[in-house]
Specification:
Mean pLDDT: 93
CATH superfamily of one domain: Ribonuclease Z/Hydroxyacylglutathione hydrolase-like
Largest sheet: 6 strands, mixed
Low-confidence stretches: none
Distance between the termini: 41 Å
Shape: globular
Helix content: 10-25%
Order of helices and strands: EHEEEEEEEEHEEH
Length: about 150
């Protein structure tokens, strides 16, 4: 079964067209479902949801109310606009503008510490591959930075 995983509401532009062409199911979180009211599958709540073998949807609200990441085989994390590699800072980065709720965003980044992965594959920003332990260290460092750095308006 073909699926289109929609990480959040502002990156859904042609999802309907592609879903029709490929006969795919569109998946979005209920927090952002107004952007795709006819989506075929709605993820509810804050708990991770197994979508198919090896595919785990992880709700990570903060950038938007319904932001989600997709973890494949506990190795590849597709993050949308939630998380990326910041080459200039040589560390993981997260949105500082256009954030729905900063504290919720930080909690969502912290939540990812519960999952092993080696790759961050972002909608914006750079991708990165690190060891699982290095990725955990990068996540922890990002949480610590964001707890003391205010979000820009």
């Amino acid at each position: 079964m073909a699926c289109i995983f929609l990480t959040h509401e502002d990156d859904v532009a042609d999802a309907g067209k592609y879903a029709k062409h490929f006969g795919a199911t569109r998946i979005i979180h209920s927090g952002d479902a107004e952007a795709v009211p006819d989506a075929e599958r709605i993820v509810e709540g804050l708990d991770a949801v197994l979508l198919a073998p090896d595919f785990l949807a992880i709700p990570v609200p903060g950038h938007t109310a319904g932001s989600m990441a997709l973890l494949y085989k506990n190795r590849f994390l597709f993050t949308g606009d939630h998380l990326w590699w910041d080459a200039a800072q040589q560390g993981l980065g997260a949105p500082q503008r256009l954030v729905w709720r900063n504290r919720v965003l930080v909690d969502s980044i912290r939540k990812l510490l519960n999952y092993p992965f080696e790759w961050v594959l972002a909608g914006h920003g750079d991708r990165i591959r690190l060891t699982s332990d290095e990725m955990q260290s990068q996540l922890q460092a990002l949480v610590e930075r964001r707890q003391i750095t205010p979000v820009l308006s």
